[in-house]
Design a protein that fits this description.
Elements: H1 13-33, H2 38-57, H3 59-75
Length: 84
């Protein structure tokens, strides 16, 4: 859980996910408006996200997350509807 102060009480995991999605979507839109191609943005986001995962949960656990991606992509769990 990230550190908090009195002006920001601790968030539940669901609240953290909601805030994270909102912030990432805003940053995504800003990057595209500034000329970053969506494919470039996606590649950088994936690499940055996995670098953070490796640093946070370790190589083996991050590898397990990565191994699930093909199924999630093929099943539609990670389709365009999930980014809105």
């Amino acid at each position: 859980m990230p550190p908090t102060d009195e002006s920001h009480p601790p968030l539940s995991v669901a609240e953290q996910e909601e805030v994270a999605v909102e912030l990432i979507i805003d940053a995504w839109r800003t990057a595209i408006e500034r000329g970053v191609a969506p494919q470039t943005l996606a590649a950088v986001a994936i690499a940055t996200g996995f670098a953070e995962l490796v640093g946070t949960i370790g190589q083996e656990a991050a590898t397990e997350v990565a191994e699930k991606l093909p199924y999630q992509i093929r099943s539609g769990a990670l389709g365009p509807q999930q980014t809105n």
